[in-house]
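Lab notebook page, bench 4
Experiment: in silico fold of construct C2
Operator: M.H.
Input chain length: 154 residues
Purpose: comparison with the prior construct
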Amino acid sequence: MDTQRILSDLRSELERITQAISALEALDGTGSTVVAKASPGMTAQPAPKSRRGRISAAGRARIAAAARSRWAKMKAAKAAKPAKAARRITPEGRKRMAEATRKRWAAQRKGTATAPKKASSGGRTMSPAVRKRLSLLAKRRWAARKKAAKAASA
C-alpha cells in the first residue's frame, strides 16, 4: 500500500467536504465555521454559542407576584376551614360504657357465654355448609403445599 497516495486521497476528500460545508453555510446564512483550505494542522473553529432566552426583570417580577398570590389564596383557604372540635365522651356515654363492661365481666365470671352480642354490621353471615366447604378447601390446599415442599426438599 502506498501511504502517500492514501493520505493525498484523504486530504482531497477533506477539502471537498469543507467546501461543501462552507457552501451550505453560505446558503443558510450561518457563516463559515471551518477553514476553507485543507492543511495538515487544520482545526475547526468552535461554533458560536446560541443565546438562550433570558427573562427580563419585569417578567421575573410578574411570575413572583403570581406565585405570591397563589400561595396567599392557598393560605386563606386553609385558614377559612374551621378546626375540628376534639371529640369527647359525655358523662352519660362513659356510664353506658362502664355498665356494658361490668356486664361482660359478670358474664365471664359466671362462665356463661351470655355476653351481650355486638350489633350486626350489616355484613353477610356464612352458613355452616359454606364454612365446612371452605375449611375442606383450605385443608386440601395446605396438604398440596406440604406435599410440594416435601418433594422439593427430597
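Observations: The two ends are 70 Å apart (CA to CA). The chain has a mean pLDDT of 83.
Next step: discuss at group meeting.
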